[in-house]
Write a structure and sequence with these properties.
Number of domains: 1
Largest sheet: 4 strands, antiparallel
Shape: elongated
CATH superfamily: Outer membrane efflux proteins (OEP)
CATH topology: Outer membrane efflux proteins (OEP)
Strand content: 5-15%
Radius of gyration: 40 Å
CATH architecture: Up-down Bundle
C-alpha cells in the first residue's frame, strides 16, 4: 500500500511541475520573447562582386578544404619526426620448482634506450619540415588554379547576361518590325512572302533568347558549385565586361612567374625534401646504439648474490645490410624530383607565353571593334529599318542588317570576355595578380 501511495504522490508532483512550466511559458512569451524576423522576399538572391565571390570561395570551397587538410597531415608528420624513440622496459622473474621462491627466486628489471647516430633525427626533421612547406605551397597552387576557374566562370555569367540582354533586345525590336509589317500586309502594302520571312527570322531571335537563358543558367550553376551555394539561390553579380588598356612585358612576367608561382615553389621544396631523404638514407648506414641498465633482486639463498645491477650496450654490426637499397631509392627519388622541377619551370614559361599571346591578340581584336565597327553595325540596322519602312530596301537587306548587327555585337562581347580571360590567364600563369 505504501508503494502505491508513493507512486501516486510522484505522479501528482510531476503533473504540478508540468503545469508550472506551462504557466511560465505562457507568461514569458508576451513579456520578453519576440517572434523571429520573417525571411524577406529576396532571401534567396545572393548579390556578389568578384572580390566577394573570391572571399566566399576561399572560405567554403570543398576542394580547398581538402587541400588544407593536407597541410595538417604534413604538420603531423613533422611532430612525429621531432619525437625521441620510447625507452623499453622489460621484467623477468625466475624461481625454483623444489625450493621456496622467496629464498631462491629472482626479479630482473631492465630499461633500454635507443640513441640514433649520424644525425638521423635531424635529417628526418628536415625532411618533414620541407614536406609541410611543400603542402602549404600546394595549397596556394590550388587557390591559384581554382581561383582562376571561379573568376573565369564569374565573367562567363556576365557574358551570358549581356548576350541574353542582347537577344531580348533584338527579339523585342524585331517583334515590332513584324507587327508593323503584318499591318502593312493586311493593307496590301507588302507581299505575304515578306511577312513569312520576317516571322521566320523572329522565331530565330526567340530561339537565341532561349539559348542565352540556358547558357546563363549553366554558368550560374557552375559558379554555385565552386562557391558551394545551394541550387535554389539566385546569383546577382555586380561587374562588367570592359576593356582597360594594360602595359605588360613578357620577360618581366616570366621572371616573376619562375620566382613566385606556387607550383614552382612546391616542386622546389619537394626537391629539398628528397635531398634530406637521401641524407637520411646515407646516415642509416651507421648503426644506432642501444644503452640499457638492469637491476636484479634475488632471494637470500641465490641463485647468485642477493642484489645485482648492470649496464649494457647493444650495437648491430653492419656486415650485410648497409641500406644499399634505400640509398638507391633515395637517389632515384631525388633525380625524379629534379626532373619534375625542371619540367614545371618549362611549363611555367610556356603558360606565360600562351597567356601573353592571347592578351596581345584579343587586345588587337577589341581595338578593331572599338574602331567604329559597332557603331557602323548599329547605324546600318537603323538605316535599314527606316529604308524598308519607306519601301526603299528589300526584306533581305533588312534581315541582313539585323543579322550583321547581332553577329557584330556578339563578336564584340566574346572579344571582351576573351580579353578578360587572357588577363586571368596571365595572373594564373604568374601566380599572383599582375594585371590590376
Amino acid at each position: 500500500m505504501n508503494v502505491f501511495s508513493h507512486i501516486r504522490r510522484t505522479i501528482r508532483i510531476a503533473w504540478l511541475c508540468c503545469l508550472a512550466a506551462a504557466v511560465l511559458l505562457f507568461v514569458a512569451v508576451p513579456l520578453g520573447a519576440q517572434p523571429g524576423p520573417a525571411p524577406s522576399a529576396g532571401a534567396d538572391v545572393m548579390t556578389l562582386t568578384l572580390d566577394e565571390a573570391m572571399a566566399l570561395f576561399l572560405s567554403q570551397n570543398l576542394d580547398l578544404l581538402m587541400a588544407q587538410y593536407g597541410i595538417e597531415s604534413a604538420k603531423g608528420l613533422e611532430v612525429t619526426a621531432r619525437l625521441f624513440p620510447n625507452p623499453t622496459l622489460s621484467m623477468d622473474g625466475t624461481g625454483s620448482l623444489t625450493r621456496g621462491t622467496n629464498k631462491v627466486g629472482a626479479l630482473n628489471t631492465r630499461v633500454d634506450q635507443l640513441f640514433e647516430l649520424a644525425g638521423k633525427r635531424g635529417y628526418r626533421q628536415e625532411s618533414a619540415r620541407f614536406g609541410t612547406l611543400s603542402a602549404e605551397a600546394a595549397f596556394a597552387d590550388a587557390v591559384r588554379t581554382l581561383g582562376f576557374s571561379v573568376k573565369e566562370v564569374f565573367y562567363k555569367v556576365l557574358l551570358a547576361r549581356r548576350k541574353l540582354d542582347l537577344a531580348k533586345d533584338n527579339s523585342a525590336r524585331f517583334a515590332e518590325v513584324v507587327k508593323i509589317n503584318t499591318l502593312r500586309f493586311q493593307k496590301g502594302a507588302i507581299a505575304e512572302a515578306d511577312v513569312i520571312k520576317l516571322r521566320v527570322q523572329f522565331v530565330d531571335f526567340q530561339t537565341q533568347v532561349i539559348t542565352a537563358t540556358q547558357e546563363l543558367f549553366a554558368a550560374q550553376n557552375t559558379l554555385k558549385g565552386l562557391l558551394v551555394v545551394r541550387p535554389h539561390v539566385e546569383l546577382s553579380l555586380k561587374g562588367e565586361l570592359e576593356y582597360k588598356p594594360r602595359t605588360l612585358e613578357l620577360d618581366v612576367l616570366k621572371t616573376d612567374a619562375l620566382t613566385t608561382r606556387p607550383d614552382v615553389v612546391a616542386k622546389d621544396r619537394t626537391l629539398s625534401q628528397k635531398s634530406s631523404e637521401l641524407k637520411l638514407a646515407r646516415a642509416l648506414r651507421v648503426p644506432d646504439v642501444t644503452l640499457g641498465g638492469d637491476f636484479v633482486i634475488q632471494g637470500p639463498q641465490g641463485p647468485n648474490t642477493e642484489h645485482q645491477a648492470g649496464i649494457g650496450l647493444s650495437v648491430p654490426l653492419p656486415l650485410f645490410n648497409r641500406n644499399q637499397g634505400g640509398i638507391l631509392q633515395a637517389e632515384a627519388g631525388l633525380k625524379a624530383a629534379q626532373s619534375d622541377f625542371d619540367k614545371t619551370r618549362l611549363q611555367v614559361e610556356i603558360d606565360v607565353e600562351n597567356a601573353y599571346r592571347d592578351f596581345t591578340q584579343t587586345e588587337m581584336l577589341i581595338k578593331a571593334y572599338r574602331g567604329g565597327v559597332l557603331d557602323d553595325a548599329r547605324t546600318s540596322r537603323e538605316i535599314a529599318e527606316k529604308a524598308y519602312a519607306r519601301g526603299g530596301m528589300t526584306i533581305l537587306d533588312l534581315l541582313d542588317a539585323f543579322r550583321t548587327f547581332n553577329a557584330t555585337t556578339q563578336g564584340y562581347l566574346d572579344a571582351l570576355f576573351a580579353y578578360q580571360r587572357s588577363l586571368l590567364e596571365i595572373d594564373a600563369a604568374v601566380g599572383r595578380e599582375v594585371t590590376k
